[in-house]
Amino acid sequence: MKQLRQIKSTVKSRGGIITSVSALVILLFVSAVPFAIKHGALFWLTSKGMEARIDNVDVNLFAGTLVVEGVHLRAQSGEASSLERFGVNLAMTDLVRKRLRIQSLHIDGLDLMVRQDTSLMAGGFPISTGEPHAEPPARDDKESKTPWHVGVDTFTARNTSVNLSLPKLDLVIALEDASLTGLSTWKPEQVSRLEITGALNKSPLLVSLDLVPFGPETSVQGGVQLTDFALSPFSGLAAPRVAALEGELTVDTRFTITQAPEAGTTLSQTGTLSLSHVGGHLTDPAVTLRDAGITWLGDVWVALDKDGTLTDLRTLGSLSNGKLDIAYPEGGIRLRHEGIVWDGELSFDPSRKDGLAARGNLSVRQALASDSETDVKIASLAHFFAYDIKAKGLADIRVPHISLKKLAALPPLSEIGSVDITGMALEELSHLRAETFIIDDVVTTLVRDPSGRLTFFNTLNSLTAFHWGDSAPAPSEAEVPNTPPPAPRPIVTAKINTFRISGSPFLHLTDRSVRPVFEKGVTLKRLEIQNIDTADPDKDLPLSLVAELDTYETLSVTGTVRPLAHDVSAHLEARVANINLSSLSPYSSQALGYLIKRGSFTADSTLDIDAGILDVRNQLTLRNLKLVPDDEDTAHQTMKNLSMPLDYALSILEDGNGTISLSIPVHGDIHNPDISLNSIIQVAMTKAITTASVSYLSFLLQPYGALLMVAEKAGEMVTEIHLDSVGYALGATEPNPEGLEYLKVVAGLMKKKEFLNLTVCANAVAEDLVTPEAPHGETPENADAPEAPEPPARERYLDLAQQRGRAIRHILAKEGIAPGRIHVCRPDFTVSAQKQPEAELTL
How far is Cα 830 from Cα 346, in angstroms, rounded to an integer? Predict the structure, then answer.
């Protein structure tokens, strides 16, 4: 027994020793692990050329915890990285179930540089993507059929900064507080939560997301807020297409993304996306964008099939371009506005031909087009609003009401108070309809400078010369590409039930080319045309016009027109009443040499145009007209044209009450006639009594200016119309070929105007009578014959001139002109200063 007890005692003693030794070994191992990890890491970092310091490493293998504190690294390139604290806690008991479960992972005070040059570097360490490893051979054992799972109960990161430097992009991601909870692959339908508070390039960033990344239907749902994120770091990515990119991005939105293997992907978004102060220079074409902004506030829903093809798109909300300033120097234009807003809904179904649909309102505020260099205003618009737009594809677009306010073109040339269009519809982008098209408060300002040129033409010419002074050379035939002709564009037709325009004053004219300066205003009470239809150009359109030139000076027109027909047709009744002629004295003095002391003008006209043939009946009345001489030279020239003083010519036409009444019919073809009737009428107009009023009324009151010019041809009874001269070859009695052709034109005119008579005054020049010398060494025929006696030179001149005049009379008689209408004058004994034989024609 004693021996047995000794054996047991010995065994117990040895067991205690083994246990103690084992415990000591384990204790030494556990104590050595942190030391080994720390110094092993330092040795490895040093071997990689890093300057490294680790303040503390704490490992608890039984609890599954690892804590590293105070890590400071500096690479040979000078990049410094640091980590204040790293802690991880593994659930050791889950390893037996093939689950790598991280109960907590904490990072605090990380400062890391990630850079990519020739390779990707993190904290100075190269990160190799490496080659893909070959998959290990498949195993049929039971263990291989049970996959490993990974999960994170809680991940947190605080005071962390990652500097990302790519070849064309630099980003700084600062995480003040970030957390991820509930992420595990063995619970695929569990919702994980991601929360981030930080900054992206110093722009505040908030992220709150619910994630289901491992389920049969993956999803992301939550919100993102990013405030005033600068776009300038993306300049490298935008180059070379865009230079000097600038602007800010603001995001405040919630969204949901779901993806199913068979159903595809859906995305829904609600909130705000905004770009502000966007600017840059587009290189091709050269366009400069300044201080632009665009904001989306609303909902978006997008569906993609499993192949990523769009199947549905819907939006509801407001898309606004708050400000725009864009310059296009090549085109010489700069565009600005202070707001474009689309407020409504839009949908797109790619499976349908008319799958695009929209409904909403569109508005524009303070739009301006100006010259890109001089900033001269070209056109402006205060407000545009299209109400309740309804679009079904491009085949059917309807807008109940369109309103435009305060339009201007080349201010102050033309300004429009408002434009209202109702009941507008556009079908197939080719058929436009509108119930009413009303333009109100039109003001047009025309100014003639002292040289007589309209000032807005000067502005246009200066802009054109500035931008397009040197036109590009035309390409040669070899340089022109052999491209197929473009497809024909669809013919656009328009139908407007009522078109109306008014303005007070509609037109204001200032003429500085005369003295005193002339100023006149015209008020357009109403111009209305009904039932406009470009598809039916031969339909009569009712027209009415009422205007005032002054309180008592009126113009009214009623009737029908066909302005769109191939040959313009019209039937109009018009009245111009009580036009005060004294205000036109600057023009009458300039044209006639007389001032209009007093007088008024009234006209009642019936105008018919049938397929371009004009038939006008005018009843014209001049009352109490009194002229006084002003410019002696011009008045003398007027008297020469009229063959008597102008005031005497008017006295012939006046009745006992000082009234001149003329009934003047006008007939003719408004197209270019075979006979140059227009040029002859223009000659007659220069001798008309009221040239000044023609300058004014023909400018303002077309077609009445043309009617008046014809009507006041009454003075023609005492004037002459000088035509172009007919030329001859030296010594010839028959006109030259050009003269023969011209005489046919004159004959045609005289056939149409049988009341016209023609006077022919021919001449002869000294060269007509010079005998050409014989060539040197030759003897003229009949040189020995006796010379006939020559008549006196005066008689030879007159005889040749008379033969030329009679030849013209004979030619015109053969053309059907009665000889009694052709008078051949006896020329004076003169020699042409130009030494050209010719015949002067006077009607």
Answer: 89
Q: With beta carbons less than 8 A apart as the criterion, state whether 703 and 697 touch.
A: no
The reported pLDDT for the residue numbered 692 is: 31
- Closest C-alpha among 341, 306, 349, 297 to residue 322: 341
Measure the CA–CA gap between 805 and 760, rounded to whole angstroms.
6
Domains in the chain: ranges and CATH: 29-124+147-202 (no CATH), 567-718 (no CATH), 726-771+789-842 (3.30.1330.60)
User: Cα separation of 251 and 254, whole Å?
Assistant: 10
* % of the chain with per-residue pLDDT over 90: 25
SS3 labels along 168-216: CEEEEEEEEEEEEEEEECCCCCCCEEEEEEEEECCEEEEEEEEEECCCC
Q: 3-state SS string over 81-110?
A: EEEEEEEEEECHHHHHHCEEEEEEEEEECC
Asked if the model's pLDDT at residue 349 lies above 50, the reply is: yes
Q: How far is CA 237 from the centre of its chain?
A: 29
Return d(Cα 236, Cα 394) in angstroms, integer. Answer: 39
- Give the pLDDT of residue 679: 32
SS3 for 472? coil
The Cβ of residue 333 has, within 10 Å, a number of other Cβ atoms equal to 17
Identity of residue 101: R
20-29, 723-732, 748-757, 814-823: least confidently modelled range: 20-29
| 116/467: higher pLDDT | 116
Q: 726, 739 in Cβ contact below 8 A?
A: yes
Q: Residue 241 is which amino acid?
A: R
Torsion-angle region of 277 (φ positive above 0: left; ψ -120 to 50: alpha; else: beta): left
8 A C-beta contact, residue 207 and residue 227: no
Q: What is the pTM of this model?
A: 0.66
